[in-house]
Amino acid sequence: MLSRKRRREAPPSIHPRNRYAEKRLDFSHLASLYPSFNPYVFSSSSGHSTIDWTDFNATRELTRILLLHDHGVHWWIPDEQLCPTVPNRSNYIHWIEDLLSSGLILAKNDGSKGTVRGFDIGTGANCIYPLLGASLLGWSFVGSDVTNVALEWAAKNVESNPHLWELIEIRNANDSNRSERIVMEKTENSDQELEGSSTQQSPILVGVVKGGENFDFCMCNPPFFESIEEAGLNPKTSCGGTPEEMVYPGGERAFITRIIDDSVQLKHSFRWFTSMVGRKVNLKFLISKLREVGVSVVQTTEFVQGRTARWGLAWSFMPPNKSSITSNAPNRSHLGSFTVEGLKRQYGAFQILKSVESFFKDNGVSFKSDSSSFSVDVALSNDQMNTLPVNGLNESSISAADQSSNVLTKPCVFRVLVFEQMPGTVLVRWSPLEKDSQFIGLFLHLFNQLEEFLKKEFNSKTHFVCGK
Ligand SMILES: C[S@@+](CC[C@H](N)C(=O)[O-])C[C@H]1O[C@@H](n2cnc3c(N)ncnc32)[C@H](O)[C@@H]1O
């Protein structure tokens, strides 16, 4: 029944709500609308119009016209500054949107309902995250930075967009209200002085966040590299990037560790702390650091950007919203979950969700899938009960309620949720949506089959976490 091999879908390179998810960019159409872009567009060997991704001027002009055309944002950066690509940066914004609506932590109760407020650590000259978050979703932002050029150009980019003035504040992290500055410890790599950098460690959140301020989230595309040599240049693209933007003593591991340390002090001021992470080995290190400091929730995601992979790491100290998981369930013993571990790099929650859908489809079970919340609602109606395969069902897997009733008065609905715990590990959890669910035993049986199916499908080991 379940042995049929089906082709796996390619890993998602773009968030489903990203406006560039549906169709590839039509460079020749954009060039016809924006003559300044025309000189950069040519036909590739496959016949598609394209640009030279190694040409900084071409990528900057593309970003400028996409922000204008699709977001109504006027934008520019000086030569050599880090040039963001709009589709890639939009993915991070949409992931935060998912976190905020996930219900994983308790909703805020401060009367500010509806107004989302974010803090972008290291907004850069390009100020890309506040510009996207404000224009796409109406979020308000504080964008911080430490270099003069970043602060000056981020402010210019806000000034060029009067409709966003109210929503974006640019803040110099060095204008901290904390008088004492920590003298940077000399590390092996700090012998190499960065041009224009301070020998003191600039504050990141503590001291930059003002007393009484509250944010829904912070985000950060950190300086990833430990040295200028390591930053190097990707010969396949030219996104610019000065040493001040790309390099930090100790690299991203040290920078994000400081965000974690600050988050402990500011645990009540932010609902979610988030950062991009460039290296998987650092992701593992940072997750264990988060466990040490006692966060209540950790979430990760993978951003596939062309040939590079980046991870998103999110954590919170807010109480987890247990009710979203248990309130509709008759009791905890009727919850079940397992993890699918050791997944290959290209597989994650999205592919597991697709396989969960295939499983129920193949078994003739009605379901409704929501890829934004990574959930599948499965409804067992009377008709479907009769068509379900019951081979292997034994008495112990059928509850008393199942045995005493062969008739479902209304469809019995269960929710299956798929969570990416960290790259390579996905948690699959199910629970009934009604208090008096019938046929729990039958669903448990079905769920055990699902577990077996996923194990075979992804050639992975599964680990049962809880449930009957
Ligand atoms: C990789 S760039 C990211 C720029 C932009 N957010 C983007 O995604 O393109 C990192 C930025 O962090 C800034 N930065 C470094 N230390 C900082 C600190 N302590 N507080 C705020 N920004 C900082 C750098 O100046 C740089 O602009």
From TrEMBL:
One of its GO terms (cellular component) is nucleus. Its EC number is 2.1.1.-. InterPro entries: METTL16/PsiM, METTL16/RlmF, SAM-dependent_MTases_sf. It comes from the Eukaryota. One of its GO terms (molecular function) is methyltransferase activity. Keywords: Methyltransferase, S-adenosyl-L-methionine, Transferase. S-adenosyl-L-methionine binds at residues 89, 122, 145, 221. One of its GO terms (biological process) is rRNA base methylation. Belongs to the methyltransferase superfamily. METTL16/RlmF family. PANTHER family: RNA N6-ADENOSINE-METHYLTRANSFERASE METTL16, SAM-DEPENDENT METHYLTRANSFERASE. This is U6 small nuclear RNA (adenine-(43)-N(6))-methyltransferase. It comes from Apostasia shenzhenica.
